[in-house]
């Protein structure tokens, strides 16, 4: 009996601790190319400033993707390059066909874009709204948790300053933790006083109560 009760309580404790906490700024890193994706939520809670940096050859691109899952298709992509002469940062979308690579979004929903090329180190910067006005399905809103995909090392071809072709990545992957930004609820999403809290404080309270129940039951048996 006590084993069963312990198992049930352990499941509760594990799920309480596993709840995602949100962040206003942070970074994810991958060993390959010393890839770093960092973010900082603006104080208005509506826009996020992003920075992506990696060691990669002059004529190659770097990208970050936001997705509901951990595979390349159906991913919102921001991709850019700087070969010392030409540069670009685009809002793109990975469709169903991996080999096609990311296609340009007709509606660009990034702002304040810039790039830096410092020897082997390529950095792209951009700002994007958490909730995109692009409702065509080619952007993922960041007011809920999203997987973050990383990729770099594909060749970039420029013609007259415009990108005309992107080659496949030399390295790619998915960060283990999801990106969970502390989004400001829109007026229609304002939680009512009766709504269950999901903050980390609530998680700690859950754990404390369940631990107390566990100790109480253990004392009885
Ligand atoms: C021209 C651009 C691209 C091409 C041609 C391409 C092509 C491919 C192909 C053929 C695969 C399967 C083989 C493999 O595992 O390597 C793949 C996998 C993958 N790609 Fe890409 N890709 C491109 C851009 C991107 C971008 C921009 C991202 C994310 C920011 C990305 C993320 C991934 C990931 C995470 C996988 C492994 C998971 C999966 O198979 O879905 N790719 N890609």
From TrEMBL:
Q: Where are the transmembrane segments?
A: 201-220
Stretches assigned to the DOMON domain: 33-153
Q: Would you indicate the residue range of the signal peptide?
A: 1-18
Q: Which keywords does this chain's UniProt record carry? A: Membrane, Signal, Transmembrane, Transmembrane helix
Checking InterPro entries in the record gives: DOH_DOMON (IPR045266), DOMON_domain (IPR005018)
> Is Membrane among the key words of this record?
yes
This protein's source sits in the domain of life called: Eukaryota
Name of the protein in question: DOMON domain-containing protein
Gene source species: Amphimedon queenslandica
What would be the name of the gene that encodes this protein? 109580100
């Amino acid at each position: 009996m006590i084993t069963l009760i312990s198992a049930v309580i352990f499941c509760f404790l594990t799920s309480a601790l596993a709840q995602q906490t949100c962040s206003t700024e942070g970074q994810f890193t991958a060993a390959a190319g010393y890839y770093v994706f960092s973010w900082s939520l603006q104080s208005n809670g509506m826009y996020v400033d992003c920075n992506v940096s990696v060691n990669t050859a002059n004529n190659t691109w770097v990208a970050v993707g936001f997705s509901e899952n951990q595979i390349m298709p159906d991913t919102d992509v921001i991709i850019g390059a700087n070969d010392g002469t030409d540069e670009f940062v685009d809002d793109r979308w990975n469709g169903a066909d991996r080999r096609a690579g990311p296609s340009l979004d007709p509606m660009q929903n990034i702002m304040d874009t810039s790039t830096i090329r410092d020897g082997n180190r390529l950095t792209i910067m951009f700002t994007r709204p958490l909730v995109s006005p692009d409702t065509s399905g080619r952007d993922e809103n960041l007011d809920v948790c999203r997987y973050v995909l990383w990729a770099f090392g594909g060749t970039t071809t420029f013609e007259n300053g415009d990108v005309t072709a992107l080659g496949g990545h030399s390295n790619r992957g998915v960060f283990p933790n999801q990106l969970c930004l502390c989004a400001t609820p829109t007026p229609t999403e304002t939680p009512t006083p009766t709504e269950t809290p999901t903050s980390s404080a609530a998680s700690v309270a859950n754990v404390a109560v369940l631990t107390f129940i566990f100790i109480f039951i253990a004392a009885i048996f």
